[in-house]
Design a protein that fits this description.
Residues 27-87 form the HTH tetR-type domain. This protein has helices at residues 16-44, 51-58, 62-65, 72-93, 103-120, 122-129, 143-164, 178-191, 200-221, 233-246. With 254 residues, the chain is an all-alpha fold. It folds into 2 domains: 16-70, Arc Repressor Mutant, subunit A (Orthogonal Bundle); 77-246, Tetracycline Repressor, domain 2, CATH 1.10.357.10. The protein is globular and about 60 Å long. The protein starts with 15 loop residues before the first helix and ends in an 8-residue tail after the last helix.
């Protein structure tokens, strides 16, 4: 009973419901901030994203945004984290119609989904995979790095299946220079790709495949060949056939 004799309300302890409402308001505000930031990124590139411009669009003061993000870098890292997770989900969902044992089909669907996402989200792709700006040096740790690892793990899992099925013969470690071997091992440590089957030779093959796919997509996203090519898909598919062939995967035309 309360002091005035009315029955006490059952349920959450005092303050919990109010806290829940505050959290919902905070989450809604965070979502709005990032939606506006993404729109500015898409329209103007990374240099066009500023806390002041976002605050103006929201009818807030710039200092008010510091309750949600401590700095512009903090906001950009949050966007990178979201974009990596969005890309990872896109890649994972690309092969849901294929049976788990169809590694050839799933790998090709995933690589094509990566390209499709990049072309549909050029500014977001540039933020993730383009050169870092002077105000946004890359960090070896943090939520964006963890999200990048989640994205990479989708391809690591497929590559592991190729290793299990012995689709290709990786070069001997002795064929890899000590300097390259050291850097490949650093890559494995930072990405979490350190299973017992992964040798320097395996890492070298995987890195070579990724660089070739990534390079093609970058050339297309940033329109580096637009002066000679108005349709990059035939080149992408031709190169994809060669890359897949190097790791024992049967190419399938779209």
């Amino acid at each position: 009973m309360t002091k005035d004799g009315t029955p006490a309300r059952l349920g959450a302890a005092p303050g919990i419901a109010a806290q829940s409402r505050r959290e919902r308001v905070r989450e809604a505000t965070l979502t709005e901030i990032k939606e506006i930031a993404r729109r500015h990124l898409s329209e103007q590139g990374a240099s066009g994203v500023s806390l002041r411009a976002i605050a103006r669009d929201m009818g807030m003061t710039a200092p008010g945004l510091y309750r949600y993000f401590t700095s512009l870098d903090d906001l950009m890292v949050s966007l990178q984290t979201d974009f990596y997770d969005e890309l990872a989900e896109t890649v994972r969902n690309a092969d849901t119609s294929l049976p788990p044992e169809d590694i050839d089909g799933r790998l090709q669907a995933s690589l094509r989904a990566f390209r499709a996402w990049a072309l549909a989200n050029r500014s977001e792709f540039a933020l993730l995979f383009g050169p870092p700006g002077p105000m946004h040096p890359p960090s070896p740790t943090g939520p964006a790095v963890a999200a990048a690892q989640r994205f990479a793990s989708t391809f690591f899992a497929l590559f592991d299946r190729l290793l299990e099925e012995q689709r290709f013969a990786p070069p001997n470690d002795a064929e890899t220079s000590p300097t390259l071997r050291r850097q490949l091992e650093t890559f494995a440590e930072r990405t979490g790709y350190t299973t017992e089957n992964v040798s320097s030779g395996v890492l070298r093959v995987m890195m070579s495949c990724w660089v070739r796919v990534y390079g093609l997509v970058c050339m297309e996203v940033f329109q580096h060949l637009s002066f000679v090519m108005d349709d990059m898909e035939p080149l992408f598919e031709a190169e994809l056939r060669d890359i897949l062939g190097d790791v024992g995967v049967a190419y399938r035309a779209r």
